[in-house]
Design brief:
mainly alpha, 2 helices, 0% strand
Length: 70
């Protein structure tokens, strides 16, 4: 996998983690749900940072070579 592939996968996993943390808060007592929401915020911030890195990395990559026409 390329660095772009790995960074994209990391972004997707952080996105899914955020979704699962949101689901986790359902049915929890208020104190525990608040702790989960705190982690959710940290994961969302990390996801945003990775998104910015993806944009930066994509700008640094050379354009893809055109595919030969059949």
């Amino acid at each position: 996998m390329t660095p772009l592939d790995n960074l994209t996968a990391a972004f997707e996993l952080l996105w899914e983690t955020k979704v699962y943390l949101t689901r986790t808060t359902e049915g929890l007592d208020a104190d525990f749900a608040a702790r989960v929401r705190q982690v959710h915020g940290q994961v969302a911030a990390a996801r945003d940072q990775v998104q910015h890195l993806l944009i930066e990395l994509q700008a640094k990559l050379p354009p893809a070579a055109p595919q030969p026409q059949a």
